[in-house]
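Support reply, case 0932

Customer input (verbatim):
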Amino acid sequence: MTRHALPPTSTTRFHPTFHSLNPQQNTLHGRQIYIMSKFFIDIWDSVFQPGTNRSLVVATYASFAALQTTLVALLIATRSWHFVFLNVICGGLWGAIVWFVNELEEVKRVEAEADRLRKLRKESESASEAEGEEEGKKEQ
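Our regenerated output:
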């Protein structure tokens, strides 16, 4: 994973906690700034890369949680049955996205296991071929 550092600007150059966005920085405030900036940079980078990353999934879940909270507040405030249906639709969509993300992670795990097994098979085949060649040389 690449680390992104923000260039110093006129507002960050003279502030001691903004001087370095290094994750090993000891100040709590500077570390929080680094984590948040990395979060937004990861979301921005995910637009240009295939697949998902953890920051995008967290942002999606936070967005749906905020939407559900807003819809529940509007339901309580207006007592309109429209917000009941909007809550159901939003909950169903959120559940579908959670299911889809879990399926993508499962596919990644299966592919990683398949790659590991392919490597093991390839190593065992090359080792058995090497043993067969050594036995052939001994017989000659």
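We compared this against your earlier run and they match. Two observations from our side: Residues 8-20 have pLDDT under 50 and may be disordered. The first helix runs from residue 28 to 47. Please reopen the case if you see a mismatch on your end.
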